[in-house]
Design brief:
This protein is an alpha/beta fold. The protein has 4 domains: about 120 residues, Serine Threonine Protein Phosphatase 5, Tetratricopeptide repeat, CATH 1.25.40.10; about 55 residues, no CATH class; about 150 residues, Medium-chain alcohol dehydrogenases, catalytic domain (Quinone Oxidoreductase, Chain A, domain 1, Alpha-Beta Complex), CATH 3.90.180.10; about 160 residues, Rossmann fold. The strands form 4 sheets. Strands 5, 6, 7, 10, 11, 18 and 19 form a 7-stranded mixed beta sheet that branches. It has a 6-stranded parallel beta sheet with strand order 14-13-12-15-16-17, with helices on both faces.
Length: about 550
Amino acid sequence: MKKAVYIIVCLLLTAVAAGCRTPKLSEADAQFQRGEYYDASVTYKKVYNKLRKKEERPQRGEVAFKMGRCYRLLNMSARASAAFQNALRYEYPDSTTHFMLAQALHADGKYAAALRSYDKYLEFCPDDSLAINCAEGCRTAQEIRARGSRYVVKQAKLFNSRRADFCPMYLGADCDQIYYTSTTEKATGDKKSEITGMKNADVFFSKKNEKGEWERPEPVEGEVKIRVKYCGICGSDIHGFTGASGRKIPPMIMGHEFSGTVVSVGPGVNRIKPGMRVSVLPYSACGKCGLCEAGFPNICPNRSNLGVLDVNGAFTQFICVPEKLCYILPDAVSFEAGAMLEPMAVAHHAVAAARPLAGKHVLLVGAGAIGQLILKLLVLENPASILVSDVSSENLDRARENGATAVMNPLKDKHEEVLRAVGISDGVDVSIEAVGVTPTAQMSVDCVKNCGRVIWVGNADQMVSINMQNVVTRELHLRGSYAFTDEDFSACLKILTSGGVDPMDLVTARIDFWKVTSMITAMARRETRQVKVLVEIEDSITKG
């Protein structure tokens, strides 16, 4: 008797437990709202199969419709068609069901059936231009299918897997190399996406051999896939967007000041692991030329730059970069600060070129984003004084806060008087120019003492006019400072980690990904004044 009771209790507990695990419609709706379309489709299907009673037919129609939406977004057109047909069979009262069914049939190449569904939908919404155009597309497709096409489409079996392959891109003038992304079985990692139900995609590479035949694609070795968290807007992005510089060739993705989280790693990657927080040095040098061997990879003639010319950058959700370009962010360094490493490295390279600075009088011309970072780093060098020149009162106020000994506006103040006020009679020892136009370049020369050093960082104008005799007869040391080296990048990461410099007070705006174009346009038109803008990418793309 006791044994029988025990069995009954166990059965009851099992039934209760099973009931607790029964998927709920609210759970599926929440998955859909989060963008987890694959997981949502699975849950909707379980709910659909559970609704068997006659009085549950209306709810079954609703679930079928929602399931169809998931399949539609997953590009599973056949399953979407079946789901929407079930929604109509159970009299789901939404006319868009006909339209979505039509689109699914259209995508599946069933043009006659799709046309009937478009026509049915147009009975409810006769002025819907999209449906009208789609219906016309079906008619045209039927005509082309009947008479044949001049184009021949063949399956590229070498590149196509049983899963998803997309975004092919030719590389090289001869189009003899191709990159593409794929969720093929060769993709690294074993975690399936709750959005697609497939493994995350990796970048694959193929090239033509001596016979002109494509070689079997392989994952790109030594590369790291990063989910971009933050990316800063650089002045070069603005100039590229407007076409002023010619260094950004559309169509392309800009952005090179960024940080993010490692999603996956390719073959041959050992130092970097998935889950690591990283900032990225945004260029690759050849490492073989005379300049690279001499320690100047920043001016390597074979250098490849992210977000410049024809190399896509980081204003995107994911980016793949070589492992060697990744710098691991310590816990003390935020993602935001990590995105500031690149402009900070530019500033560090200029300060390094100006050394030694201890006990010297220094003039900084230009107090924008790079100028302010130069100022912060100059303070660490213990100079005798730091004078800052700028035409913006806001920039000058910020310079005072960041450690400037004195400031001046060249439109209002005479530099000779400002220099004398701080006890400098024969000029500063070093001047650093961070604008790149004729008036500021000339000022950087005029204010320095005989045999003094002038460092040019600004790069706004291609041509500037300078009094050459002023340079020659006073034996001035004039040097350019361009970009940075990996040593500058590493040094800045150490400074951030130790708390020696906090760049975050320079961030005057944080925007989501969808506002990048409008912000760059406003900055180009000078409709807004910003020091540094950070674009929050990961969360804003996830939220849509």
